[in-house]
Amino acid sequence: MQVIASAPGKAILFGEHAVIYGKPAIAVAIDKKARVKIRERIDSKTHVEVPGLGISEYLEPENDVIHEKQINKGILDYISKSLKKVNQLSGLKKQNGMDINVDLEIPIGSGLGSSAAVTVATITALSFYNKLEFKKDEIANYAHQVELDVQGAASPIDTTLSTYGGVIYLSRNSEEITHLPLNWNPSLIIGYTDRESNTRELVESVRIKKESYPSVINPIMDSIEQITDNAREAIVCENAEILGELMNINHGLLDALGVNTPELSRMVYIARKAGAIGSKITGAGGGGSIIAYSPNKIDEVLGELQRVENAFIIKLSSLGVQQEVGRTWKRRI
Ligand code: PMV
User: What is the atom index within ligand 1 of the atom nearest the CA of 151?
Assistant: First the structure.
């Protein structure tokens, strides 16, 4: 018995951090995935292998080992909690063990949603493996609960994108998800530094700042909200100039929230100098990634970013989580 599920990573265009306080956000699913393969074992052990991260470990989901200080092994927490969640939901009794193999194309700790993609793909694979056939809204919901459990605070944006794919506007208080049209070519480039970002710590640092200076920070959150709403219109009307300018303003406000770093700042300005009309931190900041929007000079921006850090062009993924049968046939859920 073998099941494979894959789920895309994501990049946030507008609204990170503010989304934690009920503000809207816009994000895209990207063409980099997590692929989770589950195979039955003859014994009762659960073994996880993530070859790209050098991980090969036995899991005991009931014992809740937390690896929060080891970014690489942190991925095991999401897998372990996903197993626990599915076991609780299904009331599964002791069964044969599993080999879980994770193939990760998304750099970890880079703000590109690697943990959500692994969680969504793991829950989906487990759902098929155990013949539970969860629906997409259930998968997104359970994966968000796992993220909350591991991280303490998390908006549903990452798990939503990994589940549904596309370009998503998440409304105030995450009440509604709107799919925005995909028929524009966004020409996006990611630049990422090897310094990994810790979402939990960064969310906490913004919370402390907000509590210490509410009259200063609350208007920043309100401004990010306005930026996101204007950006939604710019996306629908395919207005590149406005979109780029709003990204630049959003970056300034993320800097004001204290989540910028010298490496990220350098990449943001290198991208603009090379011709990007918009560039900003994407995700939690504090390391991780920037996103640049460059409709006319994509190769120039990519080349300049690659001179200083890692960079790649992203394409949007209209597909969310899928069950893969073999490597060719894909089943939409
Ligand atoms: O984990 P990251 O780097 O993709 O950041 C997520 C964005 C935050 O708004 C900072 C947190 C969240 O859960 O939305």
Answer: 13
